[in-house]
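Researcher: Next entry in the queue.
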Amino acid sequence: MTGVEPDQLDDQQLIKELEAIHRTRHTTLLHGSDDALRAHNERMAELEGEYLRRHPRRSVAAGRTREGARERGGADS
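Model: Structure for this entry, 77 residues:
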């Protein structure tokens, strides 16, 4: 793994790292080597896990839940 341990980043640095890794996700998935994709997966999981640890009560948009998705899709519950 490369990069600073997620728990050593301040909130602003953590968000910046998350934005960067999400921005490169699609290209890594489509064109990265198996090793690059594995490293990307591990780093993303570490960063996201740290974010969730710090923000366990983050706001969740109703449309980003299963129920909200059903309502958008018009499916019966």
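Model: Residues 6-71 form one domain.
Researcher: Noted, moving on.
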